[in-house]
Write a structure and sequence with these properties.
Blueprint (H helix, E strand, L loop, with lengths): L4 E7 L2 H16 L3 E7 L12 H14 L4 E7 L9 H5 L4 H19 L5 H4 E2 L2 E2 L11 H8 L3 H11 L13 H8 L5 H12 L1 H7 L1 H11 L7
Helix pairs in contact: 1-9, 6-7, 6-9, 10-11
């Protein structure tokens, strides 16, 4: 009997792939859950321009390859293109409501389009609200100290938006752009990952309920996680 639950994570780009491999996989590995990141669509793509047809095709391919594999998503809500009911999800008031509408619609469409692959049980949808970099706002002190910026400026963003996952998604106010405004040297794949490692998954779970709910759903799949 295999003591590990295998989960493929379809990710948006290199930053998310490194996050899963270096931070999330070791964390869930201690609970007997294996995480393998795969960038959406063809190899060599830098991420972004996430469309439903590309994701759907990847989901179908991976679910067909092995019957004992689970599959999940790690993509940004910001910048998604050509996705069923996306505009309706964007009209919801809170980040939690937007995420719930998006995830429920996504799973509904995949269940109907892939009826023979047990999508209901094997697919765990997730979307970062509104961007992966929102997780870096989980710890004000670590974020500010790591970038050499004022903690008060980071707090001001959270006060304005209400929480990390509520940081909004216009081109000038998405989480990554807000960090870049505070420190122009911020780089997603280097400083962003280093900050995420310092913060840790537990702090992110406490500050980001949508992220936490995703991990709860993954953990619940494994009879070995305790």
């Amino acid at each position: 009997m295999n003591d590990y639950l295998d989960v493929i994570v379809l990710v948006e780009g290199q930053t998310e792939s490194i996050f899963v491999k270096n931070i999330l996989a070791p964390y869930l590995g201690r609970k007997n859950i294996g995480m393998t990141p795969i960038v959406v669509s063809k190899p060599g793509q830098n991420g972004g321009d996430i469309r439903f047809d590309r994701v759907r095709n990847d989901i179908e391919k991976h679910l067909k390859q092995r019957s004992d594999t689970y599959l999940t998503l790690l993509i940004d809500f910001y910048g998604i293109k050509r996705w069923p009911d996306y505009d309706a999800a964007k009209m919801q008031e809170t980040a939690w409501q937007k995420a719930r509408a998006f995830l429920e619609s996504t799973k509904y469409h995949l269940i109907n389009e892939l009826p023979d692959l047990n999508v209901q049980q094997r697919f765990i949808p997730y979307v970062s609200m509104h961007e992966f970099e929102a997780l870096l706002f989980s710890d004000v002190d670590i974020l500010s100290q790591s970038l050499g910026i004022s903690a008060e400026n980071v707090e001001a963003v959270l006060t304005e938006c209400g929480s990390a996952e509520n940081i909004n998604d216009t081109p000038e106010t998405i989480p990554s752009r807000r960090i870049e405004h505070l420190n122009s040297h911020f780089k997603k794949t280097s400083s962003g990952i280093a900050i995420a490692e310092k913060i840790g998954i537990e702090a992110m779970r406490k500050a980001c309920p949508i992220f936490n709910d995703w991990l709860i759903r993954i953990e619940s799949l494994s009879p070995f996680s305790g």
